[in-house]
Amino acid sequence: MSTAPSTAHDHTHTAGPDLLYSEVEDELRASVRALLADHCAWPTVLARVETDEPYDVGLWRRLAAEVGVAGLAVPEAEGGAGASWREVAVVAEELGRAVAPVPFLGSAVLSTVALLAVGDSALVGDLASGTRTAALAVPLSTAPDAAFPGGVRVEPGEVLTGAVTSVADVLPADVLLVPALGEAGPALYAVDRAAEGVTLTGVSSLDLTRRLADVTLRAAPGRLLASGTAARDALRGALHTGAALLASEQLGLAEQALATTVDYLRTRHQFGRPVGSFQALKHRLADLWVGITQARAVARYAVGTVADGDPDAGVAVAVAQSFVSELAVLATEEMVQLHGGVGFTWEHPAHLYLKRAKADAIALGSADHHRASLAGLIDLPGVPAVR
Amino acid sequence: MSTEAHQAPPPSADELRQRVRDLLATHDPATTERVEFLRARFDAGLAWVHFPVGLGGLGLPRVSQEVVDAELAAAGAPDNNPRRIGIGLGMAAPTILRYGTSEQQARFLRPLWTGEEVWCQLFSEPGAGSDLAALGTRAVRDGDDWVVTGQKVWTSMAHEARWAILVARTDPDVPKHQGITYFVLDMTAPGVQVRPLRQLTGEAEFNEVFLDGVRVPDSQRLGAVGEGWRVAQTTLMNERVSIGGMAEPREAGIIGLAARTWREHPELRTPGLHERLLRLWVDAEAARLTKEWLRQRLAAGQPGPEGSAAKFAFARLNQQISGFELDLLGEQALRYPDWTMRRPTQVDMLGGSPGFRYLRAKGNSIEGGTSEILRNIIAERVLGLPTEPRIDKDVPWKDLPK
Ligand SMILES: Cc1cc2nc3c(=O)[nH]c(=O)nc-3n(C[C@H](O)[C@H](O)[C@H](O)COP(=O)(O)OP(=O)(O)OC[C@H]3O[C@@H](n4cnc5c(N)ncnc54)[C@H](O)[C@@H]3O)c2cc1C
Fold first, then answer.
1. A/B interface, count of CB pairs below 8 Å
2. DSSP helix/strand/coil, B150
3. Cβ–Cβ below 8 Å for B12 and A8
4. How far apart are CA B312 and CA B372, in angstroms?
5. Does A386 touch chain B (CB under 8 A)?
6. What is the H or E stretch that residue A29 is in?
7. Could you say which of A105, B86, B152, B183 has the lowest number of CB atoms within 10 Å?
8. Is Flavoprotein a UniProt keyword of this protein (chain B) (predicted)?
9. Partners of B125 in beta bridges
10. What percent of chain B has pLDDT over 70?
11. Which residues of chain B does A275 touch, with a Cβ-Cβ cutoff of 8 Å?
């Protein structure tokens, strides 16, 4: 055997993407977590939900300025950090863990993907720095493979008219990215929030920490970003990457729900012993931990394939949304149940997690929808409808 | 761990490949007898590269095995049929490596790896399954030997085995975890009787093993007297974490069989089965990716407790998918190929019939620690939840209710 100084690690065969967290990602996580611990503890989040400012824009600016979370996947030439969606996914996990009321999904993910696709460097740079935020004007429930929305029309003079319901992260947004149908088919426009003819109506949302609004446009002036296939692809790409990143947020929710519940059951005593020593509960939590272990692998794979432009990304994202959505809902439902009466109160954070998890499960395509898409991708066709 | 491994820097992938080529050059698989080839491979340190030099390895990270396996497979070299010798490879070997003397390691590991000697695991007893520490098989010191008497049960492949790993009680007067000692037992020794124990599949891959005054030389003890429980933990941990070196392709497990039946038989499809199949496919993919995640962790030198999650999930999944297969097949599933009592030499889930798979999968959540016990372990050791109050920990074994 030769004694040449080399390592045995130079043949890292892996099936597809690296699923582990890198050291850089661990450091990023620590920075985000520290900042959130100081400025986004759950009592702060809870206190905000019934105010006129459900979004914490100051926190978002800070996260963008101090940790750079808004532009991680944006190339350096366009004002970002030149990292990848993998790093963004770590931020998504942490923001999920904290149910942080910031426009991360709408601005740093959905809008940023769409703007990178159409090549609007100026606006991308603003979003990456956190000085402005944008929202993608589609219902939050829109799945990546949904038909191009037809609720907004382009009228003569490049003005837009129509309505979009249930748009996430639009309340604090400076710019709306609006899919619209024109003479020539699909198009994507940027519309200034402050422009004439733009009305936002806040919705009383199931998810208290990611608020929705209905958008009405009456001859609102728009700036054309892309049309035809380019517009369609930009929208689909945004929703697809969004669905991948959402799985990481859901993972963060589930992990926090489990950790909080375990902590509680270790100290809560009934019948003269910690409730967490009862096997009926231990087994439920063990099941949840197994599910979370799997969800982590699934979410990492999804975001890894998206980051690498891997052709398996379609399957990976559909699998992630099918699996992690239901797991996150289960984790938060268990969180409520296993906290007993306390978990049912407004003053306990469990409901913030439950509401976010349930809304996330519907967001960007339900688990059921993604399973149906998967059937086509993996050649497991269903039964033709019988009439 | 071996000291040799740290003296020279580890070889690169290219050097490892060269080493494989050297082996192939001196032992052409086309003309070399299988066992000869396997022995030569062991002696070249290419059997399990993470084992120490001299014991079939090169003291390398586990992940380096991939290079070797790929190169050998490409050359059409024979393997050691790991499914036939899983207990030896997965449980006996790591325990011997950790606790064996150098004489024991030199004697046992080579024929274990080549498959010349099959191993079985004499742990469970009629009165001690999940509660293994309650075992009652006695080993009494007599000169340089121990005399072992008792009954073991559900012993897989005992009918094929040359050697057994055995736990026996050497001191009944102390609490149960303390009075156990770990041995290697010669299955051909006088007083060992193996009787087939038929399973619900019709065949008998496991056995009852009766030990009647079997003499075991003290040189076949693994670890100190009374330390058997600790030694057994190594065996059991390895039983649960037998993650292979290679990434597993999609649809490799029994989900692939179910998917194929679905694709080939449109007439069997119903909406309800479609929904179930898609869910199972997603779950199988999640399990596959979890294994891949674990594999990457092991390769990076960070083993974690997630191995027990993988074993647990695998059992549930196999049971659900094999149940689905029968529902999909309908009338055909009402027939079972053959209930004839057989003595298999290995378990073949993928090669068997759907009915066999359904029945055999029921064992997956019992063998190697039941799913209930795995949940206890996860809850207590991973999540740190408190143990249930126990009445059996400090009482001498002989005074426990049986
Ligand atoms: C196919 C197969 C192959 C096997 N091969 C081997 C072998 O090669 N060598 C060997 O030594 N053994 C072998 N076994 C035995 C196996 O390890 C035991 O069957 C297993 O550990 C369970 O023990 P038991 O059968 O005594 O069940 P018990 O321990 O009596 O359990 C009965 C039920 O109670 C549950 N239970 C028990 N304790 C608890 C608890 N504390 N909390 C909650 N639930 C509990 C169990 O999960 C189970 O459902 C094999 C078993 C099978 C099925």
1. 177
2. strand
3. yes
4. 9
5. no
6. helix A23-39
7. B86
8. yes
9. B128
10. 95
11. none
Q: Length of chain B, please? A: 402
DSSP labels, A215-269: EEEEEEE-EEEEETHHHHHHHHHHHHHHHHHHHHHHHHHHHHHHHHHHHHHHH-E
Token output for A293: 């272990």
Catalytic residue (choose from B239, B264, B267, B285): B239
Which element (helix H / strand E) includes B163?
strand B163-169
The answer to whether A329 and A361 are in contact (CB under 8 A) is: yes
pTM of the model: 0.93
Q: Of B63, B161, B52, whose CA–CA distance to B97 is shortest?
A: B52
Instruction: Confirm whether B116 is a catalytic residue.
Output: no
Q: Are A180 and A223 in contact (CB under 8 A)?
A: no
Chain A stretch 274-313, residues whose beta carbon is closer than 8 A to a beta carbon of chain B: 274, 276-279, 281-283, 285-287, 289-290, 293-298, 300-301
Please give the domain boundaries of chain B with CATH numbers for all domains.
13-79 (no CATH), 119-225 (2.40.110.10), 232-382 (1.20.140.10)
Which domains are delineated in chain A?
A: 23-132 (1.10.540.10), 152-231 (2.40.110.10), 232-377 (1.20.140.10)
The helix or strand, by DSSP H or E, that contains position B355, with its residue range, turns out to be: helix B354-361
How does pLDDT run across B158-214, given as a tens digit for each residue? 999 999 999 999 999 999 999 999 999 999 999 999 999 999 999 999 999 999 999
What is the ipTM score, two decimals? 0.93
Using N-to-C axis directions, what is the helix angle for A229-267 and A350-362, rounded to 10°? 150
pLDDT tens digits, one per residue of A271-323: 999 999 999 999 999 999 999 999 999 999 999 999 999 999 999 999 999 99
Q: What is the DSSP string of B288-337?
A: HHHHHHHHHHHHTT---THHHHHHHHHHHHHHHHHHHHHHHHGGGGG--S
